[in-house]
Amino acid sequence: MTAIAPIVPEADPGRDAPRRTTSEAAHTGLTSRWASVAAIVIALLWTVPTFGLFVSSFRPETDVKTSGWWEFFASPDVTLDNYRAVISGSDTDLGTYLINSVVITIPSVLIPISLATLAAYAFAWMRFPGRNFLFVAVFALQIVPIQVTMIPLLSAYVQPPFNLMPLAGADAPGGGLYTIWLSHSIFALPLAIFLLHNFMREIPAELIESARVDGAGHVQIFRRIMLPLMMPAIAAFGIFQFLWVWNDLLVALVFGGGSLDISPLTVRLAELSGQRGQDWHLLSAGAFVSLAVPLIVFLSLQRYFVRGLLAGSVKG
Amino acid sequence: MTTTDKLLQMGIAVALFFGVMGVILVLTSRLRSRAGERLQTAAFLAPSLLLIAAGLLYPAIKTIYQSFYDAAGTTFVGLDNYQTIVTDGDQLQVLRNTAIWVVLTPLAATLVGLVYAVLVDRAKFEKFAKALIFLPMAISLVGASIIWKFVYDYRGTDENQIGVVNQILKSVGFDTYRFLLTEPWNTLFLIVIMIWVQAGFAMTILSASIKAIPEDVMEAARLDGASALKMFRYITVPSIRPSLIVVLTTISISTLKVFDIVRTSTGGNFGTSVLAYEFYVQSFRSFNQGLGAALAVLIFVLVTPIVIYNIRQMRRIEAR
Amino acid sequence: MSSRNKRRAAAASALLLAGIALAGCAEDSTDGESQTAGGTSPGEGKAGCEQLTEFGDLSDREVNVYTSIIAPEDQAHKDSYKLFEECTGATVNYEGSKEFEAQLVVRVRSGNAPDIAYIPQPGLLKTLVEQTDKVVPAPDSVSANVDEFFGEDWKSYGTVADTFYAAPLGANVKSFVWYSPGMFEENGWTVPETWDDMMALSEDIAASGVKPWCAGIESGEATGWVVTDWLEDAVLRDAGPDVYDQWVNHEIAFDDPAIAEALDRVGSVLKDENMVNGGIGDVKSIATTPFQEGGLPIVEGDCAMHRQASFYAANWDPETTTVAEDGDVFAFYLPTTNEDFGKPVLGGGEFVAAFSDAPEVQAFQTYLSSDVWANEKAIATTAGGWVSSNKGLDINNLVSPIDQLSASTLQDPDAVFRFDGSDQMPGAVGAGSFWSEMTSWITGASTADSLANVESSWPTS
Question: B98-111, pLDDT tens digit by residue?
Fold first, then answer.
């Protein structure tokens, strides 16, 4: 909480408490007790299932398959074998998968966000014919399932129109990485544009107008006003895009065009379930290994959400 | 490829991308004339629109086209595929299930996300509390499917339980319950999984929005002696209305497309199938391209009400 | 060993003759003669390389293999390719994926096919051949190997419209009942020889307070396939292989009375509350129990018998359970109902389809269809869990007792082998309505309704 920027002066409850009247404080205290109870109930409901998985990841295989995870507390039998198997039980070491996931994820988050911020700005604050129609079309295209795009898009990568350089297949440049980045970017764009556009529309028109009057062009406004104000929204979307890419198996499998060099962590996870079995003991450990990175990203990006989106603006 | 190669490729890709974008911005930034502004607009929009057209619009059109062809995609069959969908008795149930999913999931997930975002707003452990609800979003699908197996798993009442809910039922003295098998309630139990996943999305976006409500507005209401509930109803909700619509819309669309939950939990059996799962089955298991495409087109059509609602909202905001 | 060497030499000379006979028209590849890269093969004169030297020097060439066989079973595959790599100089890139079936079709359709795919369903092979036109017919060297080492029926599963495409790779036996030898011995139960004996034994076990059978058919999107295997086994036994073939090829109705009778026979086990579901619950619990767990109550003594394929061996915890005739669990042949049709064996397996006719690909196909590879693979499979119907496979090379049992069952001269029917039916049935209708049959639908629903879903064209 110490990292909060000064633009939100009342962000710290401790700091604004003295300004409240006593009756108000009592009132807040009363409601906040119920609020706390409700919050704890929701948090418990949401966490207990995951907690079960967490406990299971430390239990031996037979225990996992024959008794409920809560039995663990009656007869604790801790093993790290599951994690050991996840970390070392493959010809490719886990580090390689992790690096692949990182290499796939970073451009797949940065590229669509940058493109979408620009496009969202155009839809929100530039005037051009067909604007609303185009925006609605882009937003509606969110509905297209990735499965529908697989064959047309992969064909285009393998045998590109106009005889361009093939992007996927055996001789693809960058070992198939480019097609994965490109595909992730494409699938992210409609939602990203839609989300960012709606946040940008909330910025008071006066702010933009006055900048225009001062002689600022769109590029300047975009850079100096829009980007800083949009940071929380961009961070929020960035997190989700990060998660989708991090947890994605399908896009990597299909659009990587079968290059094994660049398999992400999810490929290893899928492999963990075993040839015919559901090796849950391994899967549960694998799920937590894969969870670590997104959780760190979420926690470290959270401070951007805390900073008020439009704090101090004139809108009411 | 070695690790260095990969990192190098990544560096090149990102640098190249930002380089090109930067050049475009710098080049167009000097333009002030009317035609110049047009060019600027094009520079802002063209990259995204091109990618979307090639990667989503073209496949969508191709899908619509294929829906009029047979299983192998070679013979024109007119509306046969659509007729198959309409005349198949099971499909009615699929449509009904899809409707239940699309109505319940966004409402419930948004409600939970909103209430939670308000409750933990500025609480002592806010970061930690939010991470808890966010967690389901960060867990991969394989992880989620085991998590819910350990929740819903059914064993006879006398047997050792693996599912936590049935264990609770058993210890309270009830019979164990077949959560995934008993129609029609099993659909609801599957929806719970989707709500569990999506609430984190709603919470994150709405929380960012709540933080954006100007402090003076809240302060004024507080000084007027508004109760917490009234604040929620008359200040918070109206202030974040646009974000609420965004969240509801996004979750509705994801719900229309989701089939993994059905696929891993019941395989579409016991009357739990949804449109997106049927599409998946026809396209990738029965290899009936035409019918699969027709089902996808049906999903496209179902998004129309959501689109219309959003257009209306946009008009309203514009009219202000 | 000497007879194997003789056979190998015979194959090599046959290949040589074929090569000479067809040398004149080496330009046209689709006729099935082998391609060669020219040069001197690095395997010249090495043992086991006899069939492969024809293809010339394949150094620096790569063969991309795409399969549904993933860890841990992939390792033995990779190890068994070492001889090929030594003989030819080529490299084999192995990619296994759980999404294989769907992704293969996507890759083939978008022009990004692997060189070779191991296809577990003849039905999928047929779909690929008919819908995409990208599968390359097997070269003569492969065809000759299959003629020599496999039965005609196995060759026919890799054949579409009279063209031979895909040689058999691995195999499994589905007509097995898992049991605990110790539990049987303790209670004085004996392995039944006939179906009636088996049912009588079931009654005895039920009377002793233990539910005799346990089962699980949950398998995600494939839920129900276990019952299709049960039904196929029953049809083979009650109506015989000929009716079975007609039924699989839809020459008789799916809900033919003979089929209904067989399904009712399955019902006398799976839908009888006295018979199932040991250690798990009642009849309906079968539908929600993962097939991988269906037999595990045997170890706990809560259940006595579990009908499941040889590959179920992988589901027993190797640290606590030994799979052997004198171990904790083992399998017996699912007995016949009458003596009219010999010893029907239901099974499955994979087939090697190629999407390229490059010499290295053909060389690899040839290698995989040879007895040399079958034995290499058996030796490489140190943990067990693999067999082949390759007649050149020396059973002594197999490690695990259950694999030996599977191989001897497949090689039994009395055995009448039939491939899993649902894998041969059109996708809409074999990977669709057959599974789902058998699932609803377990949860209460009648035999007549379930079968009629599958019949009505059979594609018209």
Answer: 999 999 999 999 99
DSSP-derived secondary structure letter, C306: E
List chain C domain ranges.
2-22+38-173+348-418, 176-346+430-457
Q: Say yes or no: domain A91-306 is CATH 1.10.3720.10.
A: yes
Q: Mutual orientation of helices A94-125 and B3-29 as an angle, nearest 10°?
A: 10
Do residues C422 and C435 touch, judged by C-beta distance below 8 A? Answer: yes
Kindly report whether the global pTM for this prediction surpasses the value 0.80: yes
CA distance C286 to B181: 11
Degrees to nearest 5, angle at CA B244 with B238 and B250 = 165
DSSP string, A282-294: HHHHHHHHHHHHH
Taking an 8 Å cut-off on Cβ atoms, the answer to whether C222 and B264 are in contact is: no
Q: How would DSSP label each residue in A91-155?
A: SS-HHHHHHHHHHHHHHHHHHHHHHHHHHHHHHHH---TTHHHHHHHHHHGGGS-HHHHHHHHHH
Number of other residues whose CB lies within 10 A of the CB of residue B15: 10
**ipTM above 0.85?**
yes
Q: What secondary structure does DSSP assign to A51-92, as a single string?
A: HHHHHHTTS-HHHHHHS-TTHHHHS-----HHHHHHHHSSSS
Confidence of residue B116 (pLDDT cuts 50, 70, 90): very high
**Token pair listed for B10:** 């990544």
Distant-in-sequence, close-in-space partners of A83: CB < 8 Å, separation ≥ 6: A57, A285, A289
Instruction: Establish whether domains C2-22+38-173+348-418 and C176-346+430-457 are of one fold.
Output: yes
Q: Which backbone phi and psi does A173 adopt, to 5 degrees? A: -70, 145
Q: A314: which DSSP letter? A: S
Q: Is C439 left (phi over 0), alpha (psi -120 to 50) or beta?
A: alpha
Residue B37 is assigned to a structural domain of this protein: no
Name residue C178's beta-bridge partners: C306, C331
Please say whether the beta carbons of A153 and B55 come within 8 A: yes
- CATH 3.40.190.10 assigned to domain C2-22+38-173+348-418? The reply is yes
Is A55 near chain B, with CB under 8 Å?
Answer: no
**Distance of alpha carbon B87 from alpha carbon B201, whole angstroms:** 38
Q: Is C215 helix (H, G, I), strand (E, B) or coil?
A: coil
Q: Is A231 on the interface with B (CB under 8 A)?
A: no
pLDDT at position A305 is: 60
Structure tokens belonging to residue B227: 């109760």
Rounded to the nearest 10°, the torsion over CA B139, B142, B148, B149 is: -150
Query: What does the pLDDT average to over B10-17?
Result: 88
Is residue B77 in a domain?
A: no
Chain A partners of C103 at a C-beta cutoff of 8 Å?
A: 253-254
Total CB pairs under 8 A between chain A and B: 347
- Chain C's closest residue to B180, CA to CA, is C288
CB C245 within 8 A of CB C236: no
Confidence of residue C9 (pLDDT cuts 50, 70, 90): very low
- The DSSP annotation for B153-201 comes to ----TTSPP-SHHHHHHHHHTPPP--TTTSTTHHHHHHHHHHHHHHHHH
Task: Please write the tens of the pLDDT for every residue from B136-173.
Answer: 888 887 788 888 888 988 888 887 888 889 889 988 98
Rounded Cα–Cα distance for residues C233 and B244 (Å): 56
Complete DSSP assignment for C91-135: EEEEEE-TTHHHHHHHHHHTT---SEEEES-HHHHHHHHHHH--P
Chain A residues whose CB is inside 8 A of the B149 CB are 280
* Three-state DSSP class for residue C199: helix
Domain count, chain B: 1
Rounded (5°) CA angle C103-C293-C248: 55
Which chains reach chain C with 3 or more Cβ–Cβ distances below 8 angstroms? Answer: A, B
B154:C439 CB<8 A: no
Radius of gyration for chain C, computed over Cα atoms and rounded to the nearest angstrom: 23
Fold of C176-346+430-457: D-Maltodextrin-Binding Protein; domain 2 (3.40.190)
